[in-house]
Amino acid sequence: MRILVVEDDAALAGLLRDALSRAGYAVDMAGDGEEGHFLGDTEPYDAVVLDLGLPRLDGLTVLKRWRADGRNFPVLILTARDRWTEKVEGMDAGADDYLTKPFQMEELLARVRALIRRAKGHASAELVCGELRLDTRHGAVTLAGRPVSLTANEFKVLSYLMHRKGEVVSQADLIEHIYAQDFERDSNTIEVFIGRLRKKLGAEWIETVRGLGYRLREARRTE
Ligand code: CA
């Protein structure tokens, strides 16, 4: 899952980037409204955290432009405590949720998780595909009740596939959603991650759809 954070306060931006990265997201940062608007307009984010008080272009205008252009990723706005009207304006402009500064990072992470899974059509924090379970709260994966140990990148790939269970996900799509913008992208590494996941979970879970991509499907028990 890939997230854009638009925040001009450098200290808060750093905290957000660290917390979201630790939680397993690929994170792109923008320090002003123009850069933020450009990134949201050109990259396929799974969620956006948008401060409203921004230099160069204010957050409300950024949000209105995205929505007018059909950008429909979930947006969590950050509002100043003393400006309650911002929340109303923000929600009316197409924000999906808001947090008032200062906030607890845990609450922000919980709201981001909820926004992403709702946007992908999941009601629960735990994603389930047969005996395979992924808990988005703790980043834990179990197969038939037993914990599966994954690296950060393996987890990102599996998490994206599980959010889109049953759909064919192209390699390009996976690359765009598991790497941040400044990361050197290499489609071969996706094959490597898929290969390792198959080794750890069993080959039958991730189907290769020739020429199109990969599909996570409920594996049948053979024994
Ligand atoms: Ca600000």
Taking the sheet with the most strands, its summary is: 5 strands, parallel
* Overall SS class: alpha/beta
**Percent of residues in beta strands?**
15-25%
DSSP helix count?
Answer: 8
Q: Termini, distance in Å?
A: 34 Å
Mean pLDDT: 93
Strand arrangement across the biggest beta sheet: 2-1-3-4-5
Shape category: elongated
Order of helices and strands: EHEHEHEHEHEEEEHEHHEE
- Which segments are poorly predicted (pLDDT under 50) over 5 or more consecutive residues? none
Radius of gyration (CA) equals 18 Å
Number of β-strand runs? 12
Overall helicity: 40-55%
Ligand types: calcium ion
How would you characterize this protein structure?
The protein has helices spanning 10-22, 33-42, 59-68, 85-92, 105-119, 152-163, 171-178, 187-201; strands spanning 2-6, 26-30, 47-51, 75-79, 97-100, 126-129, 132-135, 140-143, 146-148, 168-169, 206-209, 213-216. The protein has 223 residues and is of the alpha/beta class. Helix 4 links the parallel strand 4 and strand 5. It binds calcium ion (CA). Calcium ion binds at residues 8-9, 51, 53-54. Calcium ion (CA) binds at residues 8-9, 51, 53-54.
